[in-house]
Amino acid sequence: MARGKLRIYLGAAPGVGKTYAMLSEAHRRVERGTDCVVAFVEHHGRARTEVLLHGLEQVPRRELTHRGAVFAEMDVDAVLARRPRVALVDELAHTNVPGSRNAKRWQDVQELLAAGIDVVSTVNIQHLESLGDVVESITGVRQRETVPDEIVRRADQIELVDMSPEALRRRMAHGNVYQPDRIDAALSNYFRPGNLTALRELALLWVADRVDEYLQRYRADHQVSRIWGSRERIVVGLTGGPEGRTLIRRAVRLAEKGAGGEVLAVYIARSDGLTSASPKELAVQRTLVEDLGGTFHHVVGDDIPAALLAFARGVNATQIVLGSSRRTGWQYVFGPGVGATVARESGPDLDVHIVTHEEAAKGRGLPVARGARLGRDRTVWGWLVGLVAPALLTVVLNALDLGFANNVLLYLTLVVAAALLGGLLPALASAALGSLLLNFFFTHPEHRFLISDPRNIVAIVIFVAVAVSVASVVDLAARRTHQAARLRAESEILSFLAGNVLRGETSLEAVLERVRETFGMESAALLERADDLQPWTCVGRAGEGPPLDRPEDADVDMPVGGQMALALTGRVLPAEDRRVLAAFAAQAVVVLDRRRLKAEADQARALAEGNRIRTALLAAVSHDLRTPLAGIKAAVSSLRSDDVAWSEEDQAELLAGIEEGADRLDHLVGNLLDMSRLQTGTVAPTIRPTDLDEVVPVALGGVPEDSVRLDVPETLPMVAVDAGLLERSVANVVENAVKYSPDGSPVLVSASAIADRVELRVVDRGPGVPEEARDRIFEPFQRHGDVPRGNGVGLGLAVARGFAEAMGGTLNAEDTPGGGLTMVLTLRAAGDRPVPVPPEPAESAPVPPVPAERRTPW
Fold it and tell me: EC number(s) per UniProt (predicted)?
């Protein structure tokens, strides 16, 4: 069965019209006779979107009960049974209610695609998993519902639904996106012009990258070698000299002039050792280009101009930046140079910039070499000199009478010339031909292959020996030069690789990409298995190639130990390249081991933090537990004493002291247990829609009535929280605010709705907290300022933030205008669906609420 096709409407923010565009497309398909159904579409009360649902068949939703509430989700089984040609599935990143067929909606979509059903869906840019941190830094909101980037990348079609920030804000102001009571808060927070502009740019750039991937795949599939200037890509050719920094900066300035320009710096390690590249200088240039937003590439090529042009055309570059030649005038006798050759052979679709620099015309570090091996042209000339020149020399010597000794020297000269030009084989051929010609034309008897004079025999033997010796020495020197140059090129590559690996700057995927790029392969993968009987698994790969289940299926298989192997596809490597490949494979294993060790170190760090918390706990509670216990014991002993007759007022005072000490102990132990559960991750909140105006007043029971001013509108949307945990968080925060507020300045507790969240603000007019100490006050066992012991162990705010985060919210501190501190508790609005929560551990029960009056300030 053919897999269905996925089409995604991608938007920068809610309200740009993704669902509207999807429904409009559905109507167009229905008019063309396509079997199209609505599997799940949420109109969010938008009248124009709801109208488009009319006339489309809708698959009934499946109702699920979760924690006493009923929710409607997409019925995957019903859609599969209906088997439409096209299914509309809104909100790809949505998290399903616990008990659904799959945890995430994109997993439901994968099932529909596997069944051969085409799917049209929607998603916002902020829901892509890789962009979570970026979106949070822009909007201040962390997206909890995400979809893996790979799911969206593999879509057959991605259509951007774009709208300017001004138009979107006008649409919101007209009530076409949110309900009227949420418009003002949304416009002043999440939907600020700056936020929308940044999200829009993020969406445009992400789609542009995907379009570029499709273009590269199309060019590769159709073998398009001609450059298409759809996007400015600037390749910088580096030699390892100090002028490289100037070239990189110049290329970056060129890229900045065009939208979306890229800079790719490439160093081609020529195997004949033409340049004296400094590994240290190349490392500096690599850091520079990466800091400026470009990428660095290191490849091996015998012909530098050809390799540079092949690389530029392979990445669809539009410009090449090279430096002026460092050659002096006399060095041009060896050739026009790399810059002139590249400019001549670049063609009309590739611009070449020659940039002047301070090192121009100052000479090269090494003389120009003549090739790694002797080269094709020299080999041809060697054969011509070795075979044709002796025949021509014979004609000349027959006309002249120079004597046998001079004739031998002249033929020997030709053999040496053939050896210098063509190497061993042309020289041997020349020696053999020369000896035959000497014997036939210049030894007695002439014109016969006989030698009558023994002295001529000795001369010819010496001639052949000298010719063979010279040819062997020349060939050996050429081979040794090639080997030395190749080893130097290999050492440069390996020094770069080892340096990056040791500094921890290279990921496993980056190492594999470097392997693929260096050897010109299609893909590279690192495979691993537990033992000889277990199947191979891929722990990392780079490039686009066939999936590898066994190293034997690859074109190149490099074992690493007994249970790992580096597999490459694309071509068969020569044996001399496998030495470098083995070093790459070993480095890849080192990177993988370091990544695993880092994960283990993070686990060990978490355990160490737990031990530190426990140690601090023992040190902190020693005094705070004894003080109320001592007061309780003294009061009880006094009441039980027969020596004193206590009045009713005295007895009431002693009983009140006992009750106060017991409350302090109860609250202290409760906070310690809460902190312990937060540290061990066993807090399992019971999330359900809750009204803030029902919870917040209860949380204020532990503070004086005139110390707090409450402003929580009844029209606020419900929040998805655990009522008990929310009450305890609010109570701890409010009690701290009351404690540090001056007399006569009540604490303000207000709430407002902003987009899909609700903010509860606790505002005091106290001394405030310096900015550098705001994060510290949320850490366990921390007291700000000169708070005396006995006022708590510093767990109040730590517990409040821990409970807030356990419910999917946040708790932060900020300045109060005019002086003081404002605590901002951000919670998610319940909406029409519950917020999914992790399942409760079997061994732990939900944390019961504690009376509001039992709170300890930080």
Answer: 2.7.13.3
